[in-house]
What does this fold into?
Amino acid sequence: NAGVTQTPKFQVLKTGQSMTLQCAQDMNHEYMSWYRQDPGMGLRLIHYSVGAGITDQGEVPNGYNVSRSTTEDFPLRLLSAAPSQTSVYFCASKGTSGGYGYEQYFGPGTRLTVT
Amino acid sequence: AQSVTQLDSQVPVFEEAPVELRCNYSSSVSVYLFWYVQYPNQGLQLLLKYLSGSTLVESINGFEAEFNKSQTSFHLRKPSVHISDTAEYFCAVSVNTGTASKLTFGTGTRLQVTL
It folds into this structure.
C-alpha cells in the first residue's frame, strides 16, 4: 500500500491564482481530511469528508473548496490564493468515519508559498 | 469545544537523559487522546494513543504517556532519549461529534536531543 499520497510536494503561486492540491489513499478509508500547519499553531482542520459525496467544513474553511467523488481521492482547491494561505498542507485518512478512536494516517505534505 | 495545550514549545535535552513533554486538554465530553510525532520534512505519525482501559500507554520505541482524568493531562515521557528522537511532537484530542470525529491538535513541542 502506498498509504496517503499528496501532490505536488512544493508549489509557489502568485496572489489570485487558483490551484488544486491532490490527495489520494489506497486503504479504502471512508474518512479523509485536510489540515494546514503553521508555525506555533499546530494543525488546523480545513475540510473533511466522511464518504464519497459528503463533505463538511472544519475550523478554517474560508478560501478553500473540496469535493469527494470517489473513496480514494479528496482534492483541495484554492480558489484565489492569498499570502495568508502560505502554509504546509496535510491530507489524512481514517478507517471508520464514526469511530473517533481510530488512527488518522497522514500524507507527506504540500509546502505552498503564495507571493 | 475541546482544546489542547502544550505548554512547552521547545525542549532541549541531552542524549540518554529523561524527558517529559506536557499536554493538557479541555473537553466537556469523553475524549480519546493521541501523541503524534513529526520528523523533519515529513508527515505526522501516530506515536501512541489512549482509548480506554489502562491509563498508561506505551509506544514501541520507549515512549509512554499516562492519562490523568482529574488533571486532564496526557504527558509524554521517555526515560532515556536518543538523538533520533529529535522531532516535533503533537498532542491531539478526538471527540465524537455524532457525525464524524475530529482531531484537535496542540501547537506542538519541538524536542531537540544533543550529545
In short: The two ends of chain A are 36 Å apart (CA to CA).
